[in-house]
């Protein structure tokens, strides 16, 4: 009962409420000294109670002080950890970007051999939706799906290039299936060196197909007609931009 009354008193003062919640079992003895304050005003009572708590908190051993201030320490500790993680991520990203810039320099030196090759004799392997296409200038790419963000007549810059070659030369470029921020940065840098552009010339549907849907232990077979969409691209430009 005494502990319940103590907790009710703790709710009256918002400043000392979290400390009272932790110190309630430690301050049962000082509460007996506060009986004669029952007829006084609530402000004087809270003031006297706060002074007793501050005196009691100073006399506590360090272990109990750490228990009381654990919630505030936890919040500060977690915020410091999050800030440190952000700093580490920024440092890691900067180091990866430096590595990418060094690889781009090596790629530019390696591609010097392709400067003398005419653009019509070049070929490249481009990945579209993680599927490789071997292309040259003027080729048609028949994609068996609908590119929603592309309309007829729009030009597309293909930036996921894995190979480059000619009749006498071949060069493999660094690629990765899981595209992170650094991988996209690398692809954009490579696409600045090797520029491949395509034009959407047609968006249509394939021929109609009769499909039968058969199920086990079912006498009725469902038959329907499907027309899958397709998108046709023409390679407009394939060139190397090296000074």
How many distinct beta strands? 10
Biggest beta sheet summary: 4 strands, antiparallel
Order of strands across the widest beta sheet? 2-1-5-6
Structural class: alpha+beta
Low-confidence stretches: 1-17, 25-43
Strand residue content: 25-35%
Mean pLDDT: 75
What is the helical fraction, as a range of percent? 40-55%
N/C terminus separation:
87 Å
Order of helices and strands: HHHHHHEEEEEEHEEEE
Rg over CA atoms, rounded to whole Å, is: 36 Å
Query: What's the overall geometry?
Result: flat
Number of helices: 7
InterPro entries: bL21-like (IPR028909), bL21-like_sf (IPR036164)
Family: Belongs to the bacterial ribosomal protein bL21 family.
Protein name: Large ribosomal subunit protein bL21m
GO molecular function: structural constituent of ribosome
Short description:
GO terms for molecular function: structural constituent of ribosome. The protein has 243 residues and is an alpha+beta fold. Helix content is 42%, strand content 25%.
Walk me through this protein's architecture.
The protein is an alpha+beta fold and 243 residues long. Among the domains are: 2-68; 117-204 and 231-240, no CATH class. It contains seven helices and ten strands. The chain has helices at residues 2-12, 17-23, 28-32, 42-59, 62-68, 70-110, 181-193, and strands spanning 123-128, 131-136, 140-143, 155-157, 161-165, 170-172, 194-205, 209-213, 222-226, 229-240. The strands form three sheets. A four-stranded antiparallel beta sheet has the order 2-1-5-6, covered by helices on one side. Strands 3-10-7-4 form a four-stranded antiparallel beta sheet. It is flat, with a radius of gyration of 36 Å. The relative contact order is 0.11.
